[in-house]
Amino acid sequence: MADDDVGPSQLSESQQEVLGTFTAVTNQETSAAIPLLERSQWNVQIAIAKFFDGEAPDPVEEARASLVPPPVPPAISSRQETLMNGFSRSPRPSNRARFDPTPRIVPQPENQYVYRTPFILTLFLTPFNLLYRLFSGSLRIFAYLFPFLPRMVSGLAGSRAQPRRQRDTTGRRPLNSQDTAARFTREFEEEYGQHELTFFPDGYAQAYDLAKKDLKFLLVVLLSPEHDDTSTFVRSTLLSPEAVNYINDPQNRIILWAGSVQDSEAYQVSNALNCSKFPFAAIVAHTPDDSSRSMSTIARISGLTSPAAFVARLRSAISQHSATLERARASRDEQQATRNLREEQNSAYERSLAQDRQRARQRREEEEARSRVEREEKEKAEAQERAIRNLEQWRRWRAQSIPPEPSASGEGITRVSIRMSSGERVVRKFRAEADMEELYAFVECYSILSGDPVSSEASEPQGYKHIYRFRLVSPMPRMVYGLAGGHTIGNKIGRSGNLLVESIDEDDEDV
């Protein structure tokens, strides 16, 4: 074996291709992939199977170890050991059967890669393609006219050179795994008629994965149409009532996959299962004693066998391995139950955490709403206080500009009797040419005018626009004396008038 520090540059071109395919499938580092490929004799399928299914013990190393004779203990030591352990349980060699590991086969037909020629190169090669077709057509015509010449030329060429590699001469078109399984089922029914067996409708790799996942037995049946015993085996053994009933029994947990060795996939499976004689059947199952991912061949049936012997061999292998799979299934169920319990606990924790977050968000929203209400109430109270201060300042400022009451002996005088909203009646004389706003201002500022003398230092409040929250009306007949129109007191009221002060609500129209 080569050293472990062999680099990709020291590999041959074919080994580099195998290394590229292996790393593309397994995504493994090159330093770890090269030793595994060397142990697999640079067979990419075996290396991939070892990577995914676990590597079996090396038979060469085991053979070397078996050649080393075990140390022979002294007779006295053996007697003492016998006397000391005479009534105890003597150690017994492990009687666990060793099974051959079964790789996972992925079919790789020769024409699976289709390379499309670039368009520019196709245009460039079009004249040569036409010339080749004309030349080949001429040769076919010449061969048709002189049929003995091609046989003579092929005989001479065959005697001088050997073919480099064996080609598939069966004429079967390579298909994908599912189409290959459907073709085999159709040809099987055409050859042997309708039957009750249920073949797996996909490839060997998919059946292999399903058997490993569900811990079932994979029954692989490989047929060779060219073999003389194939028809007898199928009609007498495989389609016998005993075999059909046993294979279809759900309690046996059997997945049936069959194929013809004329197909590439079945041929690769036959090589992997060490098929030595057709017809061939093998039982593949999970072997947890070897590793947690290993699949092994627990039984092989080669050649023509009777239905009773075939079913007996199946029953014996399955019954011996059922306990192992039951333990693995129980362990897997326990792990799944533990995983489900952990997921339920995590889900419950997430729900509890979500509820706590919801309650925290609700408390935060309530606190924000309460703070907003308090802030609005505070702003409203400040606005009211500011409005009251502005109104009081405006009254003092406006009272300064109200002229004093004129004398009764003068002309152009209007006498007005006003009943205030407090019930007090005030009689005052105004100039007839004065605006109605002066009468409203008098009513608004009456509390200032009837009290202490007005200070001359009062100024108009900045940014304040005064709105009168009352109207002056005459009782009989009722008439509203508003500010609209800019009329004078004499024009609206005349020489005298009796007015009432009515407060205006916010829903009413402004004066």
Description:
There is one protein chain. The longest helix has 94 residues, at 307-400. With 511 residues, the protein is α+β, with helices and mostly antiparallel strands. A hairpin with a 4-residue loop joins strand 8 and strand 9 (479-481). Helix 1 (13-26) crosses helix 2 and helix 1 (13-26) runs parallel beside helix 3 (44-53). A five-stranded mixed β-sheet has the order 1-5-4-2-3. It has a five-stranded mixed β-sheet with strand order 7-6-10-8-9. The radius of gyration is 54 Å and the shape is elongated. It is 50% helix and 12% strand.
Would you identify the regions where 5 or more consecutive residues have pLDDT less than 50?
65-95, 110-114, 157-169
Fraction of residues in β-strands: 5-15%
Shape: elongated
Helix content: 40-55%
Radius of gyration over alpha carbons? Answer: 54 Å
* N→C terminal distance: 111 Å
Q: Which sequence of strands runs across the widest sheet?
A: 1-5-4-2-3
| Secondary structure tally: strands | 10
Count of separate DSSP helical elements: 16
Order of helices and strands: HHHHHEHHHHEHHEHEEHEEHHEEHE
User: Averaged pLDDT, please?
Assistant: 81
The biggest sheet, with number of strands, parallel, antiparallel or mixed sense and barrel status, is: 5 strands, mixed
User: What is the quaternary state of this protein?
Assistant: single chain
Which class best fits the helix and strand makeup? alpha+beta
